[in-house]
Amino acid sequence: MSTFAIDNIGLLVTNDPELGEGPLGVLRDVSLVLDGDRVAAVAGAGAQADARLDAGGRCVIPGFVDSHTHLVFAGDRAEEFAARMAGAPYAAGGIRSTVTATRAASIGELTALARSRRREALRAGITHVEVKSGYALDVDGERRLCEVAAGLTGDVTFLGGHLVAPEYQDRPDDYVALVCGEMLAACAPSARWIDVFCERGAFDADQSRTILTAGRGAGLGLRVHANQLGEGPGVQLAVELGAASADHCTHLSDADVEALAGSGTVATLLPATDFCTRQPYPDARRLLDAGATIALATNCNPGSSYTTAIGFCIALGVRELRMTAEEALQAATLGGAQALWRDDLGRLTPGSRADAAVLSAPSYTHIVYRPGVPLVAATIRAGQLEWLDPEGGLV
Ligand code: NIG
Questions:
Q1: Which fold has domain 65-339?
Q2: What's 179's DSSP letter?
Q3: Residues in contact with ligand 1 (CB, 6 Å cut-off)
Q4: Staple partner for 323: which of 104, 136, 161, 317, CB 3.0–4.6 Å?
Q5: Residue extent(s) of CATH 2.30.40.10 domains in the chain
C-alpha cells in the first residue's frame, strides 16, 4: 500500500472534537497522512510518505458527502426554470418532461451524462454521492437508472415512487403495486435505499407507507421526500418508519420538528431547491436548537435544483437557514454521512476513507464569505487525487 501526505495544512477540519479544537476538531499547521484509501494519521511536518502534496498553508476539510442527488437523467428544463423566475409556481408534475427525455436516451447517453455531472461534483469537492433513480417510472427504465447510478456510488436509491407514471395517471394504486412488485424486484439488486415523494401531486401517506414498507421488506433502507411544497405527513412517516433521512423539510410544524429531534432520522435540507423554486427556506436554526441532526445536500436534478455547487448550499445554509459556518460545513460533510448511515465518511480521522478537499483559502469560512466562487483547489477521494485545479497553485 502506498502512502500519501498532504503537508503544510494551515487549518485542518477533522470533524472529531477529540482530535482538535471545537466541534469541527480543527488543527493548525499539520500534515495528513493517507495510506491507500484510508486516513492513517494527522502528523507534524516531515512525516514519511511515498508521495506528497504541499497545501501551502491552505485549509483542508473532509470531502463533501452529497446525500441527495438525482444525477441520472436526460434533457434539461431551463425553460421551466425561466418561467418560474417570471412567477410560475413549481409543481411536482414537471418531473414528467424529464421522464420523456430519459426514457428516450440510450444507456450510453445516460451513463455519459451522469459521469459528467459526477466529475462536476468532484470539482466542487464532493467525494461521495447518493444517487436516485426516478426519471423512468417503468420497470426496465428504473432498473437501467439504478444500474447507471451503481456505476457512480454504493449509495443508490430506488425512487420508482417519484411520480405516478403517465400510463397509470388514472390508476395510481396500480402504479403503486407495480413499484412495490416487479419494479422493486428489478431495482433492489443495485440499490441500497428506497425513497418516495410524499407530497400533494405525488404520493399520499398511505401510498408512501406501502412503497416504503415494500422496500424495507426487500432489504432496503428508507428515505423520504417530505414536506417540500407544504406541510404534510412525510416527516412523521419518515420518523415512524425509522427512515435514515427526511429530505427537504421546508414546511415543518412544531410536531414535525419535535419528531425529528427525538429520532434518528436526519433532516436533509436542500436550500438550492428553495432558491430555484422560490420557496421559503427551511429553518435550520429551529431544528438545531431542538436537537435534530441536519444534512445539507445539493439535490442536483434538472427540475428544482440543477447544481452541484455544495459551497453555494453552505452559503445559503448560513445566510438563509440561520446556521453558523461551522454547522453548515459539518452538515455537508458529517451530516451527509449520517444521513447515509456511513461512519467511514465525512471526517478526517485515522481509519476513515481518505476523502478530502483542499480549499484555495486559509479557512472554511471563505466558503460563505466568497459565495459562488469555486474554492476547491484539489479533491482527494479514497486516497487518489481526483481533481487538481490547474490555477490553484498546488504542487
Ligand atoms: O427533490 N421533489 C421531488 N423530486 C426532485 C425534483 C424533481 C424534478 O422536479 O425533476 C426534488 O426536488
A1: TIM Barrel (3.20.20)
A2: I
A3: 94-95, 98, 197, 225, 228, 273, 299, 301-304
A4: 317
A5: 3-62+347-388
Cβ 122 vs Cβ 387: under 8 Å: yes
* Number of C-beta neighbours around residue 171 at 10 A: 13
CATH 3.20.20.140: which residues of the chain? 65-339
CB atoms within 10 A of CB 215: 28
What spacing in Å lies between the alpha carbon of 334 and ligand 1's midpoint? 24
303 alpha carbon – ligand 1 mean position (Å):
6
Q: What is the phi-psi region of residue 116: left when phi exceeds 0, alpha when psi lies from -120 to 50, beta otherwise?
A: alpha
pLDDT for residue 175? 98
Q: Which of 102, 137, 197, 277 should be mutated for ligand 1, with most atoms under 8 A from CB?
A: 197
Provide the pLDDT for residue 100: 97
For residue 201, what is its C-alpha cell? 401531486
Reduced 3-state DSSP string for 63-111: CEEECCCCCCCCCCCHHHHHHHHCCCCCCHHHHHHHHHHHHHCCHHHHH
3-62+347-388, superfamily in CATH? Urease, subunit C, domain 1 (2.30.40.10)
Q: Which residue(s) pair with 224 in the sheet?
A: 196, 246
DSSP-derived pairing of the beta strands 3-13 and 26-35:
antiparallel
Determine the 3-state secondary structure of 131 from DSSP: strand
- Classify burial at 333, counting beta carbons within 10 Å of its beta carbon; exposed 0-12, middle 13-18, buried 19 or more: buried
> Residue 23 C-alpha to ligand 1 middle, in angstroms?
33
Ligand 1: which of 225, 278, 306 to mutate, judged by most atoms within 8 Å of the beta carbon? Answer: 225
Q: Distance (Å, rounded) from C-alpha 338 to C-alpha 184?
A: 25
Instruction: Please state the atom number of ligand 1 nearest to the C-alpha of residue 247.
Output: 1
Mark the ranges of the chain whose per-residue pLDDT is less than 70: 395
d(CA 241, CA 233): 12
The C-alpha atoms of residue 119 and residue 80 are separated, in whole angstroms, by 25
Spatial separation of the C-alpha atoms in residues 13 and 282, rounded to whole Å: 26
pTM over 0.85: yes
